[in-house]
Amino acid sequence: MDGQAVLEIAKLEDAQKTIVVGEQTFSREEFKPVIFDPRPSAVEGNTLTGLIDYMRANVEGVKLEGCLLLVKDYAHVELVEKFSGARKTRTVFFSASLDKNLPAFPFDSFIAVEDFIIKARSLFQNTADLDAVVSLVSRVTEQNQITAKDDGISQEVQVKKGLSGAVSEGVTTKGVYALRPYRTFRELQQPECSFILRLRAKTDALPGAALFDAEGGTWRNLSTEAIKAYLVEQTGVYGLSVPVIA
Known about the structure:
This protein is of the alpha+beta class. It has 2 domains: 43-101 and 224-245, Signal recognition particle alu RNA binding heterodimer, srp9/1 (2-Layer Sandwich), CATH 3.30.720; 111-215, no CATH class. The chain is built from 5 helices and 15 strands. The chain has helices at 3-15, 48-57, 113-122, 128-137, 219-237, and strands at 18-21, 24-27, 43-45, 67-73, 76-81, 92-97, 111-112, 124-125, 145-150, 155-161, 167-172, 176-181, 193-200, 208-213, 244-245. The protein has a 5-stranded mixed sheet with strand order 3-6-5-4-15. A hairpin with a 7-residue loop joins strand 13 and strand 14.
């Protein structure tokens, strides 16, 4: 073994050594702190109910008085520990995320009338405006033809029934409808938002219907506020002293 090899071995050995200064341990080679600060992985769930149940049961002995509930957006909430340890990091004890596999209404896209009606009934909470939308759209069948006058807000729709178009029926959409689609956690009353209804005739195809957002995506903020209100209410009911941040 030559001298260079001995030096390399000595260097490797030296790199593993540490120096203790006060209560802090440092790596001898680069004089960096050596920190062992293990953190548990977060428990993951898909509901706000599961989050509240976790806090109520508290089988892991989490110090809830040292935590906060962080509403990150309409689909994510975390039970987070206040920063601690030498690295000043935060532990996430529970992460509630909206199930990505839940069906969602295809906004901003024209779809066949029958599909539109089925999705509207299954993916919205019931409201008077939803009934009005479904009632209007259901008048259009596969043998109907549509002609429409559009002022950018409402549509005056003329539906010609039958292949001959012998009977016609005029209906006018009111343009903007207040609806509650399922877009955040299902425990909540879904935020009411405005949508524009449009009907469109298609050449050699069934007529189509579509809903367009009329509020520029404000439903995200409304959903976040609804989540916060729900968590404030539930933590109060069960005496859980955890602040809610949104």
